[in-house]
């Protein structure tokens, strides 16, 4: 194996592929990054039996071949290289990397022991890369982080014709995001539970090109796989991951059809006020929110401890209401909304609030909804 490649393109591709490497690999070869050189250019791959990453890029290949080297070490080296072309060549059981006057010699691992990457399923459709990255960033806000409840660490992707729905919940909050896409089959109806961390990292990393191709293959035995592919500097990038096995809770019914109290508030002012008031909130206590006479009053702290209170203008419709929420969860939802104004919709104080953005005179933004359970207020 012998090739020359642009330093920036190579370093970016290595860093992208290496981000999927396991922290504690079950076998040494899974810490490796596979480099394959052929007449068609370079392919850089990583795989941990769950998630695979594959980057293709252009290069001047003098001799074809394969090499498996430490992925994180190669990524660290590439970040430090000067702005010169990179030359790599196999030298016995080592790989020699030269960039300008910098030279590195890396130990290789046995290529024959490296697992075969899964094939990309047949394409299900395409979606605008920037829109998808934004939608995923909103949806994962409510995804769980407790590995003891693996189903809740995923994002449920539901495909119905030309609409994709993203749902996530950690039992205390729920996010729902919808966006349009171009399905290969107009009447497609599919569903998948994708690890939230993988989905978030992948969507964010595939925004160089205009579109992302989504490929989904499901089965009843928990062996489903989803793939994402998009253009990048100097080539293409592809990620596949196994779907989570388990029944995602039926959460759509949690969004109420009617609301008795609604409040429209400036989003930035509300975020700033919650941050200030929550400074005195003790751990695991709520920030109280009282809605009355077109005023939102926020309170935190109690008894002999520090206390804080702040009032905001709010367009309140319906019954007066006092409730309270985990301040960080509230801030997470507000920060995920992009509109300047938000609507908080309630049925009663002990029931969840539905938070959504307001788009001018057209009302609420149907694209993203954030449902948050209230917390018990201290008497």
Give an account of the 3D structure.
The chain has 379 residues and is α+β, with helices and mostly antiparallel strands. The protein has three domains: 2-113, DNA Polymerase III, Chain A, domain 2; 123-242, DNA Polymerase III, subunit A, domain 2 (DNA Polymerase III, Chain A, domain 2); 255-372, DNA Polymerase III, subunit A, domain 2 (DNA Polymerase III, Chain A, domain 2), CATH 3.10.150.10. 17% of the residues lie in helices and 44% in strands. The protein has helices spanning 7-18, 71-80, 129-139, 196-205, 267-277, 327-336, and strands at residues 2-5, 32-38, 41-47, 51-57, 60-63, 65-70, 86-91, 94-99, 102-107, 123-128, 154-160, 163-169, 173-180, 182-183, 189-195, 211-217, 225-232, 235-242, 261-266, 287-292, 295-300, 308-313, 315-318, 321-325, 341-346, 353-358, 364-372. The protein has a nine-stranded antiparallel β-sheet. Strands 15-11-12-13-27-26-25-19-23 form a nine-stranded antiparallel β-sheet. Strands 5-1-7-8-9 form a five-stranded antiparallel β-sheet. A hairpin with a 2-residue loop joins strand 17 and strand 18. Helix 3 (129-139) runs antiparallel to helix 4 (196-205). It is elongated and about 80 Å long.
Largest sheet: 9 strands, antiparallel
Lateral strand order in the biggest sheet: 6-2-3-4-18-17-16-10-14
Overall pLDDT score: 93
Tally the helices: what do you get? Answer: 6
Termini separation = 72 Å
User: Outline, from the CA principal axes?
Assistant: elongated
Please name the fourth-level CATH homologous superfamily of the largest domain.
DNA Polymerase III, subunit A, domain 2
How does CATH name the architecture of the largest domain? Answer: Roll
Number of folding domains?
Answer: 3
Q: How many β-strand stretches?
A: 27
Task: Using the coordinates above, name the CATH class of the largest domain.
Answer: Alpha Beta
Percentage beta strand: 35-45%
């Amino acid at each position: 194996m012998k090739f020359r490649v642009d330093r920036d393109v190579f370093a970016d591709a290595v860093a992208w592929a290496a981000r999927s490497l396991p922290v504690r690999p079950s076998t040494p070869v899974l810490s490796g990054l596979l480099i394959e050189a052929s007449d068609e250019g370079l392919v850089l791959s990583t795989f941990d039996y769950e998630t695979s990453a594959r980057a293709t890029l252009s290069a001047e290949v003098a001799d074809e071949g394969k090499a498996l080297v430490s992925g994180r070490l190669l990524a660290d080296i590439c970040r430090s290289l000067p702005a010169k072309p990179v030359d790599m060549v196999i030298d016995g059981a080592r790989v020699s990397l030269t960039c300008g006057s910098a030279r590195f010699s890396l130990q290789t691992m046995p290529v024959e022991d490296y697992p075969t990457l899964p094939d990309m399923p047949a394409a299900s459709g395409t979606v605008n890369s920037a829109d998808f990255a934004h939608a995923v960033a909103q949806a994962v806000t409510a995804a769980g982080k407790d590995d003891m409840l693996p189903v809740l660490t995923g994002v449920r992707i539901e495909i119905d014709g030309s609409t994709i729905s993203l749902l996530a919940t950690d039992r205390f909050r729920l996010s729902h995001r919808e966006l349009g896409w171009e399905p290969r089959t107009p009447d497609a109806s599919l569903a998948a539970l994708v690890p939230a961390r993988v989905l978030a990292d992948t969507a964010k990393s595939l925004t160089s090109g205009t579109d992302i191709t989504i490929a989904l293959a499901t089965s009843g035995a928990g062996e489903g796989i989803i793939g994402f592919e998009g253009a990048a500097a100097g080539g293409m990038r592809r990620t596949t991951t196994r779907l989570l096995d388990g029944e995602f809770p039926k959460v759509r019914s949690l969004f109420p059809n009617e609301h008795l109290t609604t409040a429209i508030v400036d989003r930035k002012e509300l975020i700033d006020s919650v941050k200030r008031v929550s400074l005195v909130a003790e751990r695991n206590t709520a920030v109280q929110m009282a809605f009355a006479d077109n005023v939102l009053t926020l309170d935190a702290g109690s008894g002999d401890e520090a206390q804080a209170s702040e009032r905001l203008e709010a367009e309140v419709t319906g019954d007066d209401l006092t409730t309270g929420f985990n301040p960080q969860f509230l801030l997470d939802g507000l920060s995920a909304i992009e509109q300047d104004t938000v609507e908080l919709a309630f049925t009663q104080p002990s029931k969840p609030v539905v938070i959504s953005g307001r788009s001018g005179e057209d009302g609420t933004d149907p694209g993203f909804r954030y449902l948050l359970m209230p917390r018990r207020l201290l008497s």
